Amino acid sequence: ARIMVSHIESGAHHQALQEGQQALQLLALSSTDSVMLGKITNQVGVVFFHLTQYDSSQHYFDRATEIYDLTLADNDPRWATLYHGFSALRKQQQLHVKAYSYDSMALKVLLAHYGNDHPKVGDAYNRIGIALERLGALEEAKQNYLKALDIFKIDIVRSLPLASTYENLGYVHFGQADYGSAISYFEKVLAVRTSVLGDRHAATIRIIDQLGRCHHQLQNLTAAKSFYDLALQRLDQAPTGQELLKANLLLKMAILDDELGHTRKGLKQLDDAADLYLQLFGPDNPYQSYIYTNRAIFHTRLGEFERALAFQEASNRLYLRDLE
């Protein structure tokens, strides 16, 4: 069971699944510890969630619920872990009201067990904020993020959860077109993650990219280009596995280069992004129509009208196909 948890924390989910299923077999054969059986069952559900096998995840969460109903008090914190698992599933299913309900149940359990200032309570407020944000309740989401922030500020050991809450607040302000406030929060995230995770970690690079987006929205084009260029440089130095982040970044850089008058360079960025999307999703990927539309715009800008028309017609064909 401990090896399984270690694999989950390191992202080695297939290995975690093997260890978890072996642990369940051993517990079923030789143990009367039903609480441990429920805990491992829940963790196997978490692993299946990370493996995007959501039906299997639901099955193990339901089984853990049956075990916990027989073995745990209502305010046992292990219920909160299970509720967070159900919430993650409901968010994946776009059932954000149900996700909010599960996160609220988790918060109630954690408050009863730990009190008001435990980091797990802060994490619960953070999760509720995410659910509320996805429901469009931005002000309520912001209040929950701020509650989490107050808790995480207590101890520097909690710096990464603190950064996650800053990030969520940044996204709320970004969604409200308050880009200056968003920049302020994202800069705090960048400082923490650079210090704790390093400058080549995907979570750090994502915030550099987001700072570029904020400046782009404010039409601070030189600043936006600096952040995008830095993010691309860090991605080129980072381990593999960040192709989607790189493709999305190249697409934004292409649009920015066009706005700066470097349309030919923007076309090259579009080509590079299109190649990555093709590798990731195949020829019928959801980004293809958007790529074609931007190619049409760029070729029009360059006076290459026949090529622009060809790309616009290709984009229209994809759009009509998707409507069928």
Structural features, described:
With 324 residues, the chain is mainly alpha-helical. Helix content is 82%, strand content 0%. It is built from 16 helices and no strands. Helix 12 packs antiparallel against helix 13. It is globular and about 75 Å long. The mean pLDDT is 88.
Number of DSSP helices? 16
Radius of gyration from the CA trace?
23 Å
| Shape by Cα distribution | globular
What structural category do the secondary elements indicate? mainly alpha
Averaged pLDDT: 88
Q: Which regions are unreliable across 5 or more consecutive residues at pLDDT < 50?
A: none
- Bin the helical content: over 70%
The share of residues in extended strands comes to under 5%
Order of helices and strands: HHHHHHHHHHHHHHHH
Number of strands: 0
Q: Termini, distance in Å?
A: 49 Å
